[in-house]
C-alpha cells in the first residue's frame, strides 16, 4: 500500500543522515561534526551490544531475511534517529546562541527544525512496527536508549572534548587536512554569512580598483610618449 511505501522510504532516514554527515565532513571539516558522527557510531555499537545481550527475537511474520541480525531489542533505527534528533535538539538550544537581531526568526526556525526532527524520529520508529521489523516495546526502548545516549554524548562533548578542540585543530595532521574548530563561535551560520559577505564586497571593490588602474594605463603611456617627443 501507499503508506507502507512511504514508511519504507522513511526507514531509510539513517542512511540519508550518514551520507549527509560524510558530505559535511568532506566540505566543512569541522571537529564538532566529526564528534557528532563519532557519537552516532558509538550509539550503533551500544545498540549491537544490547541486542546480543538481550537476544530478543523480532516479531513473527516480519521480513526477517532482509535484516542483518535476528535480534530486535532495541530497534537500531529507532535508537539511531532518536540519538540524532535529541542531540540536534540540544545543539540547537544549548550550543547555538543568538548573535544577530533577528531574534524572532531565529527562534522560529529552531522550533520548526526541532519539531521536524522529532517528527521524523517518531515516524521512523512507527515504520519499524508497521513493517513488522520490531514490536512497540523494541522501538520504545530503542528511542529511550538513543535519547539517553544523545544526552550523555552531548555532555561529554561539551565538557570534555570541546576544551580539547583548539589543541586538536593545531595538530600537524589536522592542519594538513584543514580540520577546523568553530566551538568558540556562537553561531557558525551567521559568522560564515557575515565573513563571506564582507569578503565578496572586498573583492568586488578590489576588482573595480583594478579595472580603473587598467583604464588609466594607456593614457599614462600616451602622455609619456608625447613628453618624450
Automatic annotation (TrEMBL):
**So what does this thing catalyse?**
a di-trans,poly-cis-dolichyl diphosphate + H2O = a di-trans,poly-cis-dolichyl phosphate + phosphate + H(+)
Phosphatidic acid phosphatase type 2/haloperoxidase domain sequence ranges: 37-154
Membrane-spanning residues where?
6-27, 80-96, 108-127, 139-156
Keyword set includes S-adenosyl-L-methionine: no
Q: Where is this region: Disordered?
A: 208-229
The record's EC number reads: 3.6.1.43
Q: What class of enzyme is it?
A: hydrolase
Question: Is Hydrolase found in the keyword set?
Answer: yes
Q: How does it sit in the membrane?
A: Multi-pass membrane protein
Which top-level group of life is the source organism from?
A: Eukaryota
* CDD domains (alphabetical): PAP2_dolichyldiphosphatase
Q: In which pathway does it act?
A: Protein modification; protein glycosylation
**What keywords are assigned to this protein?**
Endoplasmic reticulum, Hydrolase, Membrane, Transmembrane, Transmembrane helix
Q: May I have one GO cellular component term? A: endoplasmic reticulum membrane
Q: Give GO MF terms, alphabetically.
A: dolichyldiphosphatase activity
> Matching PANTHER family, A to Z?
DOLICHYLDIPHOSPHATASE 1, PALMITOYL-PROTEIN THIOESTERASE/DOLICHYLDIPHOSPHATASE 1
Q: What is this protein called?
A: Dolichyldiphosphatase
Species assigned in the record: Muntiacus reevesi
Amino acid at each position: 500500500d501507499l503508506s507502507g511505501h512511504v514508511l519504507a522510504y522513511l526507514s531509510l532516514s539513517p542512511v540519508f543522515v550518514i551520507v549527509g554527515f560524510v558530505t559535511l565532513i568532506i566540505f566543512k571539516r569541522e571537529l564538532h561534526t566529526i564528534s557528532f558522527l563519532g557519537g552516532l557510531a558509538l550509539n550503533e555499537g551500544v545498540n549491537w551490544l544490547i541486542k546480543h545481550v538481550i537476544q530478543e527475537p523480532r516479531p513473527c511474520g516480519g521480513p526477517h531475511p532482509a535484516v542483518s541480525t535476528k535480534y530486535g531489542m532495541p530497534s537500531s533505527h529507532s535508537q539511531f534517529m532518536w540519538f540524532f534528533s535529541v542531540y540536534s535538539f540540544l545543539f540547537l538550544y544549548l550550543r547555538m546562541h543568538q548573535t544577530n537581531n533577528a531574534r524572532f526568526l531565529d527562534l522560529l526556525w529552531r522550533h520548526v527544525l526541532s519539531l521536524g526532527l522529532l517528527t521524523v524520529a517518531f515516524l521512523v520508529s512507527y515504520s519499524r512496527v508497521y513493517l513488522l521489523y520490531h514490536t512497540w516495546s523494541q522501538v520504545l526502548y530503542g528511542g529511550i536508549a538513543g535519547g539517553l545516549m544523545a544526552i550523555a554524548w552531548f555532555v561529554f562533548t561539551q565538557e570534555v572534548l570541546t576544551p580539547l578542540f583548539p589543541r586538536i585543530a593545531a595538530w600537524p595532521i589536522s592542519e594538513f587536512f584543514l580540520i577546523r574548530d568553530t566551538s568558540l563561535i556562537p553561531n557558525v551560520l551567521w559568522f560564515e554569512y557575515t565573513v563571506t559577505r564582507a569578503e565578496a564586497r572586498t573583492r568586488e571593490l578590489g576588482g573595480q580598483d583594478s579595472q580603473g588602474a587598467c583604464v588609466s594605463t594607456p593614457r599614462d603611456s600616451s602622455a609619456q610618449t608625447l613628453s618624450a617627443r
